[in-house]
């Protein structure tokens, strides 16, 4: 039995789909489970986690706390250890633990990674680059005729398709050969946000403009939008790190695990954006 946390999210939903297609027994965890094969559990409710991990061999561990913290990872690890879970595949992030000026990029993922590595369970670490699916938030902005806010300037990133992240996760969950490995997951090309916008406009046949949002402006806008200061800090730090060119990284890890090249941003856009009379609208 495989427990998929974050099962209703961007990556987790594809992990669930692939496990289902592969005939692997799984349990999809969410606070609002959608149906069969699902378990209702909350990282903030230890009793629900204990129920979720009962009889489980491997866990796909995806946390997305509103305020950056390793607490959700630690809670799941505690329950998993107690239940005798054998292995953990943790979704972390590229750049985790890198020093950038006075700050550490992905400090909360770093603490969680450390806990996973020392948990006594077998582990695989997945460190994806920027998700192609982040662009799904652009649909409403494009429809409104507004420019897409660009927090990373001309900084290029190895934008990766969440379906590839999920496919690697499923390999790691089902084949012990991946134990003890850390995979940095990128797409096949380095793209800045304006370059992504140009590709997207070719796919949807409508103009997609961007507006640069330097760190101080991004901080102001995100705070004004009501995000907790610690979440704003983490977002702006990661974006400034990428803006400075530190995430201009491509790896062969997706191809090495899957035996095929990673999908391009354009592949993702073609699969997920539709052109209709209403505008850019999103298919997923
Ligand atoms: N976006 C990027 O470019 C990027 C790049 C690298 C790494 N990452 C990492 O990717 C992760 C986010 O992945 P994602 O985009 O797939 O997430 P997502 O789409 O935001 O989904 C979050 C998932 O977590 C579940 N969840 C949230 N709070 C929960 C709680 N208290 N208890 C139980 N489940 C809870 C949600 O389920 P319910 O709401 O149904 O309960 C949902 O399934 C983060 O760790 C982030 O650091 C992101």
UniProtKB/TrEMBL annotation:
Domain NAD(P)-binding: residue ranges: 6-176
UniProt cross-references to Gene3D superfamilies, sorted A to Z: NAD(P)-binding Rossmann-like Domain, UDP-galactose 4-epimerase, domain 1
Domain of life: Bacteria
Pfam families reported in the protein's UniProt record: NAD_binding_10
Entry-linked PANTHER family: PRESTALK A DIFFERENTIATION PROTEIN A (PTHR43162:SF1), PTHR43162
Name of the protein in question: Uncharacterized protein YbjT (DUF2867 family)
């Amino acid at each position: 039995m495989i427990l998929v946390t974050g099962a209703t999210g961007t990556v987790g939903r594809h992990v669930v789909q692939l496990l289902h297609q592969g005939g692997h027994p799984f349990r999809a965890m969410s606070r609002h489970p959608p149906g069969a094969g699902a378990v209702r559990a909350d990282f903030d409710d230890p009793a629900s986690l204990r129920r979720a991990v009962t009889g489980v061999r491997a866990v796909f561990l995806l946390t997305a706390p509103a305020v950056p913290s390793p607490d959700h990872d630690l809670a799941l690890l505690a329950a998993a250890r107690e239940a005798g879970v054998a292995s953990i595949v943790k979704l972390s992030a590229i750049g985790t633990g890198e020093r950038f000026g006075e700050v550490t990029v992905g400090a909360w993922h770093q603490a969680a990674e450390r806990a996973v590595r020392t948990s006594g369970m077998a582990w695989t670490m997945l460190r994806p680059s920027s998700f192609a699916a982040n662009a799904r938030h652009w649909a409403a902005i494009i429809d409104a005729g507004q420019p897409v806010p660009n927090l990373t300037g001309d900084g290029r990133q190895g934008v990766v398709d969440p379906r590839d992240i999920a496919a690697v996760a499923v390999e790691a969950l089902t084949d012990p050969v991946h134990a003890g490995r850390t995979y940095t997951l990128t797409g096949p090309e380095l793209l800045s946000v304006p370059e992504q916008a140009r590709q997207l406009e070719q796919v949807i046949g409508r103009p997609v403009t961007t507006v640069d949002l330097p760190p101080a402006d991004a901080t102001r806008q995100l705070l004004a939008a009501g995000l907790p200061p610690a979440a704003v800090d983490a977002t702006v730090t990661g974006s400034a790190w990428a803006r400075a060119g530190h995430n201009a990284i491509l790896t062969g890890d997706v191809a090495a695990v899957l035996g095929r090249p990673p999908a391009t941003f354009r592949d993702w856009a073609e699969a997920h954006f539709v052109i209709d009379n209403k505008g850019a609208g999103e298919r997923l």
